[in-house]
Write a structure and sequence with these properties.
The chain has about 350 residues and is of the alpha/beta class. The chain contains ten helices and 14 strands.
Length: about 350
């Protein structure tokens, strides 16, 4: 059981997701998708291809947007389809992606990002900076990612730019091409908050007088522990958290339930993790300290999250209704609230940021 927790929770992800879907038929504005013949079981395929919402579709030389489901059965789905870049034909292999645009902010939104670097106690890290005119910067902290070497085109970047705020898209320890942690493990904010502090320090050195933090999944844990521990937390005007990993222990329990496994196995695995590797599960439960939070928080969480139980965000919102504006999103899975209704999500973020900046 410890091996499962170690490999799926603490170790950085390796390899690239396969092109696990096949284009069965392609029309001018619709596409029929099925599982690639090479995939042995449907369990190997992320289910976004058959879920409602707006999704990306990528292949080796292009990407597109998947829209409304028009028809579906056990083996195939017909959806609205909007090509963005590259050519696609029947028989091609593709996969779904979280967001329906290029990872490059310029290709996605026409926003120019330049490479910069900052320092934490571990060493030097890279980041991408989209300059704005305001003295307030927005710092984006991603979650646990597969290997990638490009910046992330977060869907709210155009809103940040529209408000004149600078966007700093950071990396942290164990990202591909960046410094590893001493043990090679993710620590869900226990150590990574120092990298975020380095990014905030860099923003301050470049003239930022205040910052707004945005954290997705594990990035939400990093942001929250930064707010608890960092002296520079005083510079934070507010935070946006999307499916934040605020209690790793409960997430592991949740994951076992999702797999149909008995939760008592989690207790065994956690015990072994504590004995063999010194994992402090109490320290990884950031809900225990929520009374210390003192900045406005915009919180999103999907009701069908298979990774972080929505009850974690329920608990944060219930404990701190004075500072938390909570959006519990029906049908959304992990960190995919934007996909269910992009216009509403973006309007909510715009209102929140405008009220802070």
């Amino acid at each position: 059981m410890w091996n499962l927790i170690r490999d799926e929770v603490f170790r950085p992800r390796e390899g690239v997701r396969p092109l696990d879907l096949e284009v069965i038929e392609l029309g001018e504005d619709r596409i029929t998708l099925g599982v690639s013949p090479e995939i042995k079981t449907y369990a190997q395929v992320r289910d976004e291809w058959k879920r409602p919402g707006i999704w990306g579709l990528c292949w080796k030389e292009g990407y597109a947007q998947l829209g409304e489901i028009l028809r579906t059965n056990e083996q195939q789905v017909v959806r609205e389809f909007s090509p963005i870049m590259g050519n696609l034909k029947s028989g091609d292999r593709v996969r779904t992606e979280l967001w329906p645009f290029s990872d490059d902010p310029y290709r996605a939104f026409g926003l120019t990002a330049r490479k910069v670097s900052f320092f934490s106690p571990l060493g030097e890290f890279s980041a991408s900076l989209i300059d704005g005119s305001s003295k307030t910067w927005v710092i984006f902290v991603h979650g646990k990612l597969p290997p990638r070497e490009t910046p992330i085109a977060y869907p709210i970047l155009p809103i940040v730019a529209e408000l004149g705020l600078s966007s700093l898209l950071i990396t942290y320890r164990n990202d591909v091409g960046e410094l590893p942690s001493p043990d090679g493990f993710h620590w869900y904010g226990l150590t990574e908050w120092e990298d975020l502090e380095g990014a905030v320090s860099y923003a301050q050195e470049q003239g930022a007088e205040s910052v707004i933090l945005v954290g997705y999944s594990m990035g939400g844990a990093i942001v929250t522990n930064f707010l608890y521990r960092a002296p520079l937390a005083a510079k934070v005007l507010g935070a946006i958290l999307d499916a934040p990993m605020l209690d790793l222990g409960s997430a592991i329990d949740h994951g076992l339930r999702e797999r149909g496994l008995p939760v008592f196995l989690s207790g065994i695995g956690k015990f072994l993790a504590r004995v063999r590797f010194g994992v402090d599960w109490k320290a990884l439960n950031y809900l225990d300290r929520v009374q210390e939070l003192d900045v406005p928080i915009l919180l999103f969480h999907g009701e069908e999250d298979q990774v972080v139980p929505v009850e974690v965000s329920d608990a944060l919102a219930r404990a701190r209704p004075d500072i938390v504006t909570y959006h519990r999103v029906p049908e959304a899975t992990h960190a995919r609230s934007w996909n269910m209704n992009p216009e509403r999500y973006e309007a909510t973020v715009r209102e929140f940021l405008a009220g802070l900046a």
